[in-house]
Amino acid sequence: MNSNKQQTYNRSDIESALTKEFPHLTKSQISLAIDSILESIVDAVAFDDKVEIRGFGTFSKKYIRPRKFINPKTKEVSYLGETATMHFKPSKSLVDK
How much is the pTM? Predict the structure, then answer.
């Protein structure tokens, strides 16, 4: 039976996995490495670059169209311009796992 429940990982899960994999590194060194990697991905995507990590996935910038919205309390109509957000598409091998 195939369940649709996806397993999620947070930063502490990644840090503990790397600590087991590289016992000679300190926790602060691992934390600094994770910070550097994440910061470089965010910076690259901010400059409209696409970041692809083989076997993991692709990070890119996704634009959200301009739209109007209504404040439910005051019924005032406002407009929100185009916004951008980071998009992650997992690789096929990551999805299969």
Answer: 0.68
